[in-house]
Structures are given as structure tokens and as C-alpha cells.
Write a structure and sequence with these properties.
This protein is 39% helix and 26% strand. It is built from 9 helices and 10 strands. β7, α6 (173-188) and β8 form a beta-alpha-beta unit. α4 (113-127) packs across α5. The N and C termini lie far apart (36 Å). Bound molecules: adenosine-5'-diphosphate and magnesium ion (MG). The site of magnesium ion has 4 residues, from α1.
Length: 243
């Protein structure tokens, strides 16, 4: 792993009306790392991902691979190498799984049509869990399969940074294990840097190289996961509230 940050966030603020939701975040994501972000509901985690992925605007600076990317639209950011999944599992219900993933590779990257179909097939193979379902429409898929479709769409854009918003929420323990294995392979085999917003400590501890705790729009503590989890401020504010 090199020390070069793939993403730099400086003095990032976001307010809704008079309410300050992000209060000046400063952090970097190391290229090749898995950064975990956790914190209570309403801490600002999804808002942060929404700003980095261009869905909403904030004030401050976001640099990706050394270049400012604030103000770019989501599809432009996808083409530059930033992909994400959403807390609510969604896919195009009227397209087949294969067509859904093609949308990622065709519209989210600069691949031509044939290459985009090939790449979509490769990513479906890589994810593996949708074998035999490639030509079905995901409208009635169970949560785990929908999450797999959403992940395959994101991977199809050929991201160098992938942001996952609570990907294990609502999954069974066995499904969570499968998902964790997949995230590890995306990081290690595809070399994708990952920001993982997650509540489950088991998932965070099993996957993350770095951990950041968001609390009321501020970074409460960040660092090596095992140390962050032992930090008294975290125990008081975050874990303390749940136990
Ligand atoms: N569109 C919005 N308008 C007003 N307030 C919002 C909006 N989106 C989020 N918020 C508020 O911002 C805060 C952070 O929300 P969010 O980023 O979704 O938190 P998290 O993902 O950590 O649970 C919450 O208090 C939420 O109510
Ligand atoms: Mg959220």
C-alpha cells in the first residue's frame, strides 16, 4: 500500500436550512485502503457520501487523485472512477440483471458498447452470486440479490474508489459473511479503494484498515480500528448509547 491519498476532504460543511449537518470535516483516504465510517443515525454519513459522489453540494474541497472534483455531476464522477451503492437497495426493475450491469459499464465509463457488454459479464462472474439470474429482472429479488445487482452495477463502472452505504444492513449472518468476502476481493483482487459506511462492528473490524467515527457532523476519532474501538470517547458516545 502506498501512502498517497486517493481522496482528500478539506473543511467540508453542509447545512440544511439553519441546521449544520457536516461541520468542517478533514480527512484523507489512503489509496488501496478500506476506510470504515460509522456513527449513530443522523451523524452525517450518507450526507458525506452524497457530497463525494456529487448528488448534493457542500462547501469545502474534495480532491480525487489530486484533482478537485467538487461540483461535478454523479455521471462525471463515475467516469473519473468514483462509484457508490445506496442504503436502499435499488436496480432498474424492468431491465434484466445483465442489462442493469451493462448500464453501469456503458454509461458509467468510457467503454464502447461491445466492450461494455463484455465487462458487464466479467463483473457478474466476479460477483458470482447472481449465476443463473443474469437474464431475470430484479424487481422481485430478495434483498441480498438486489444488493449484488447494485454492487455489480457499481463495479461495472470500473471504479478506483467504491463507497458502500450500509451494505450489510438487513442481511443474515451467512449473507453478511459472503458480502464481506466479496468486499475483500474487490479491494485486494481489483485494487479498489473502499469507503465502507457500516454499523456492524463485526464487519468493520473484519474489513477495515482505517476507521472514522462521525458524531453530530464532526469526526470524533479516527485511526486504526482496534484503537478507535477502545477509545473512551467512542465507548461513551457511540457504543455507550447502544449497550
Ligand atoms: N435533504 C435533507 N434535508 C434536511 N435534512 C436532512 C436532509 N438529508 C439529511 N438530513 C439531516 O442530516 C442529518 C444527517 O443525515 P444522514 O447523513 O442521512 O445521516 P446518517 O447517514 O449518518 O444516518 C440528519 O439529521 C438528517 O435528518
Ligand atoms: Mg445513512
Amino acid at each position: 500500500m502506498t501512502a498517497a491519498p486517493i481522496l482528500e476532504v478539506r473543511d467540508l460543511h453542509k447545512s440544511y436550512g439553519g441546521t449544520s449537518v457536516l461541520k468542517g470535516l478533514d480527512f484523507e483516504v489512503t489509496k488501496g485502503a478500506v476506510l470504515g465510517i460509522t456513527g449513530q443515525n443522523g451523524a452525517g454519513k450518507t450526507t458525506l457520501l452524497n457530497i463525494i459522489s456529487g448528488l448534493i453540494s457542500g462547501t469545502g474541497t474534495v480532491r480525487f487523485e489530486g484533482k478537485p472534483v467538487g461540483g461535478l455531476a454523479p455521471h462525471e464522477l463515475a467516469r473519473r472512477g468514483i462509484a457508490r451503492t445506496f442504503q436502499a437497495a435499488t436496480a432498474f426493475p424492468d431491465l434484466t440483471v445483465r442489462e442493469n450491469v451493462f448500464c453501469g459499464s456503458y454509461f458509467g465509463s468510457s467503454m464502447g458498447r461491445d466492450e461494455a457488454w463484455d465487462h458487464a459479464a466479467r463483473m457478474l462472474d466476479f460477483v458470482g452470486e447472481l449465476k443463473g439470474k443474469e437474464d431475470l429482472k430484479p424487481g422481485s429479488f430478495r434483498l441480498f440479490d438486489l444488493r449484488m445487482v447494485m454492487l455489480a452495477i457499481a463495479l461495472a463502472t470500473r471504479p478506483r474508489l467504491l463507497m458502500l452505504d450500509e451494505p450489510a444492513g438487513g442481511l443474515t449472518p451467512a449473507e453478511t459473511e459472503v458480502f464481506m468476502g466479496l468486499i475483500r476481493r474487490i479491494n485486494q483482487e481489483l485494487g479498489v479503494t473502499i469507503i465502507l459506511v457500516e454499523h456492524l462492528m463485526k464487519v468493520i473490524m473484519g474489513l477495515c484498515d482505517e476507521l472514522m467515527i462521525l458524531h453530530n457532523g464532526n469526526i470524533l476519532v479516527s485511526g486504526v480500528p482496534a484503537e478507535v474501538a477502545q477509545d473512551q470517547r467512542v465507548i461513551d458516545v457511540y457504543l455507550g448509547a447502544e449497550h
